[in-house]
Amino acid sequence: MKLRTTYLGLELKSPIVVSSSTLTGSVESIKQCAEAGAGAVVLKSIFEEQILSDIRREEGYTDIYNSYLEAQEYLNTFMRGNEIDIYVKLIREAKEVVDIPIIASVNCTSKGEWTSIAKELQDAGADAIELNIAIATFDRDLDAREIENEYVSILEEVKKNINIPVSVKIGDHFTNISRMAFSLSKAGSKGLVLFNRFYNPDINIEKIKVVPGNSISSREENNNTLRWISLLSSQGIPCELSATRGVHTGEDAVKQILAGAKTVQVCSTLYRYGIDYIRQINADIEAWMKRHNFKDVESFRGIVNKKENIKVVERLQYLRRNYDSNK
Asked: Which of 31, 88, 210, 279 has the fewest Cβ atoms nearer than 10 Å?
């Protein structure tokens, strides 16, 4: 098939991957994604915080347990087992009904006991693991290098427990994204997912309170991802790049692949138009390929970066803007 590609060493029928969300949180919706033509799915994330929050909600749990170490250990073990069992069951059941790669997702902020979970996800049949590392950088005393080192440390700790490929999903709030990306690649990340979309707050001026902002991405957000896929690809980063955030159409996907992306992850557009919209995205990519005489995805991946010096293009953006403003 024209759309076949590989990602993290896995065979995909299409470069379109459904990103971690409620759309990939049940066997039925995962089956729908596969039937619509998704190349792979990234399961809804399991969070570090889920375990602690479940313990606090457990009936009969009060602050008195803070004084009893054995009680704390029991509750942690009990709730941990329940959380993992649910996730493991999702992986196993999904593997039984679909023939596309199932990528488990862990949303984390630090390394610790939770990293052993990775082995259980692998044993359940996960084809790969995507680490959605989201360290909150609100502490003014926290050094930027410490944050970067923690990302690498989390990756290395997880890799000690498993032999399936690991990718890392990062945000775009680093001082030097290129350095962070290459550090993760050197530490063994087989793929990088650009970029995490943090939920933004808003303020309701009538109720005078903070409320959630828009959780659905716009196509304009695709530009920053496109920029960094191009830059990292042109620098020859030795891992595979997956573009996400702001990818809504087949045209958006083609642009990312031209820039060097191996796969393109979609989410918001499926909330708008339904899971079956994957068919349209795939059809649009194929139609574009036919118009431009490309026989497969690999034949046009990254070719834009082979034509121009990306660093020069980056600089010209500023020069052109300054020229236009002085006209």
From this structure: 210
